[in-house]
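INPUT
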Amino acid sequence: MEIKETIDTKGLSCPMPMMKLAKAMKGLKPGEILEMFGTDPGTRADLPQWCEKKGNTLLEETEPEPGVFRFLIQKQ
Amino acid sequence: MKESEKKSVFKDLYNIFFTKHWPVWTGAVLAGILNVLMFGIVSPWSGSAGYSSWGKNLYKVVNILGFEETPSLLGNKWALLSIMIVLGSFIGALLSKSFAVRIPPFGELIKGFIGGSLMGIGATVGIGCSIGGFFSGVPALSGGAIFLTFGLFLGTVVAVKYLFWEMEKFPKISTGKGFTYLAVSQDRGAWQKWMGLIVSILLFFIAYTYFQADEYVLGWFIIIGGLLGLISQRSIFCIVRAFREPFMSGDSTGAKGIIAGLLVVLFGFVVIKTMNIGAGETALRAREMSFVHSNFWLRGLLGGFVFGIGMTIAGGCAVGTLWRMGEGQVKLWFSALGFLLIAPISSKFITPWLTDILPFNMQYKNYLPDYLGYAGSVGLVLVILGIWYWFAVWNEKSGKFSQF
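OUTPUT
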């Protein structure tokens, strides 16, 4: 699985993580994968909803270190 | 019941309340019920009055700006309520093992302070904040609250445009190393749950000391504040999301949730006002005029506009700032600092100047039932909420105004 781009939103709170994610996704082609790191608990609720609405696929959500979430999102 | 079944029941209850966030509408309806209860006890919910009390007490300690006569925040119901919202959110974050001190890049801290300062100015030059002016003011059938609502919308739209412009032109403001401390992973970190229990007991002990001193209103406000903080943290209850998301992601769940909460508050407040419930020595007219603020239109609109810009830049409204503080979001600590430092200064120096230059016909209180009757006033509020609901749902489907 090739990751095309990585964005780091650690420390940022709502709405900045989702704004940065949306901007980064605009630069990807369909099928490409974006990796995102974040610490905002609200993003964990917002991101899956947003992906579902936009048709993007949330491939993976993990917690590589305490309080830090890693998301893999594939553009539709 | 067997011991293992008891454990399973507690585990299920824990999972229901603390594993995932609650739907926004659940939090808004519960917050609405508590708002009605507060009005039944003494007065509807106010957010900015708490920040102002904190700020005035700070200036009193350092003995500047002439706030020496300010009553202690330990005897101020709004100051205590706001402190307990922070504490309640802290409990919610600990019990769900999601507490962490989250420090964003420096530019975000500055934005937090500026946003909080603008909220402090907006709440004082206008007719209150997103809670007292909007979440309590609209159901209180205040004509000024309707203008404040339009102001909040306008301010939010302008600030959303600013945020996108900033991200394009000055991305470094929100870029840089962020730091996280005291975080735990979901499958470990039981200390946060234990700490949550200890802080819960502490909160009830504080309330108990007030009850023992016959300070029943303050005692109940401490408990209600704790519940509001817990509910807000678990449901991401935030007014700014309701106003902002249609112009960002297009998501309508925040708007729908707040509308549901407003309907509950509207119903409760109208019953209290028409039946004079909990009035005590207060005359019916004074009870009716609760949270119907002076300076009903231009200042309401202007204050809402400035507050709308502030809450969007800060990333939290009056209550959103409080509960995110409890969750450990350091940007919102700076927002609260801006709010509490600037609100007293604004009310002392900017507000009197504005009052002097505005014509008298903009300064009186506008109570909608005086002009439309109760049925007409409730109908007007329902129409406005209906239009908002329709707009949020239509926009979510069409994406007409959403940016991403």
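end of record. Chain B has a mean pLDDT of 94.
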